[in-house]
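Reading a protein record of the kind used here takes only a little practice. An example makes this concrete, so a full record is given next.
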Amino acid sequence: MDMLIKSRIAIALVVTIATLASCKRDDAAPAVAKPANGDYVVQDWVLPAQPGSMAPDLRVAPDGRVLISWLNRQQGRRNVLQFASYTEAGGWQSLPRTIAVGQSLVANWADTPHLLATADGALWVQWLQANAASPSAYDVALARSRDGGMTWTQITRVNNDQTESEHGFAALWPRGANAIGIAWLDGREQHMSPGAEQKEGTHHAGAMQLRANAFDMDLERGADTVVDARACDCCQTDVAITDRGPLLAWRDRSEDEVRDIVVARVQDDGAWTKPIPVHADGWKVEACPVNGPAIAARGNEAVVAWYSESGGTPAVRIARSTNAGDAFAPPVQVDTGAVVRGQVDVAIDEQQAWVAWLREDAKGQSLMLARYAPDLSKRLQLIEVAKLGARGHASGTPRLAVDAGGAWLAWTDVVDGAADLQGARIAR
């Protein structure tokens, strides 16, 4: 991540939380609004996270359990990474379980942990770990649990370059029954060795890369692959599984600072296809917007959602591919205007495509959810899921997952000046 942008994130987090200390949610008011149309409704889903919790990740495991992870960040205490699992039949399966604890465990709204379950029953998680050698250096940590999350004894560093540089914004996917793939933004080429001269007019010696690798059940690594030698410095990445292999989405960065969304697919031999644009937005911006894409897949159908300000107007868009990302149809405009914040997530099932995003106007933030026909030809429903007490970046990015019964949502709100994790079930 570009140091200037990293600093901006840190400053924004401090300023936002400080500003929001006086912004309290009216507890007497309903937490969610009913949908304006359609046949899905918002139901309460009370999460087991303590006050101070933020940065959720949400997955449906192969066995049908809903998995959620989060960070708990409280003043004067060490940061804690936790998770829990849920079934509609039995509710929460246990008390929240702790994965990692420490001051070096980085907790911010932008670069958040991700949780994954593989078919063998193992759990995997990655998070951002501060490098003790430098205050501006971060590494991607990866851990595996063989006992349902009771213990996380297997921990490794994903990036093995040994440079005091920035790494993060990872995406995880399963490889067979007991291994995983992972992609991450890697700043080793931005790191200047002692005595090296900085290029005039630049902050770094090189560009942020997007790298990928695979890890087996013993956390033994494969060989790094450079997927993109010049990626946007601090936008989230995402991945989905098609019938032709994992499809990775990220924000590219051209030499003239056009930062549009691209995808690439990893093939059976481990090689990555050439990145192709989801749509030629032509959004030229000389700083990272910290607003990455989301992708979902079913068979060889893939849907990408993203934020753009091409043409000077904020917008959330979605586009569909029927050939595992080889090409995409023209995008559908989900929302547009100055109130659009983006911070998107997307999911698809047999009946529809789902997209979640944030808006913010003078009255506050709203978490929005829309359903579209599978081919995106028609919007089926628009729901304002919740009014948020959060402002600015404090809400982070909402997380969306689907199963046969509907959708699950988790997001960060702010209550009494502190982060507060919220959830909802969207069902008939």
User: Anything to note?
Assistant: The radius of gyration is 20 Å. The CA atoms of residues 120 and 245 lie 19 Å apart.
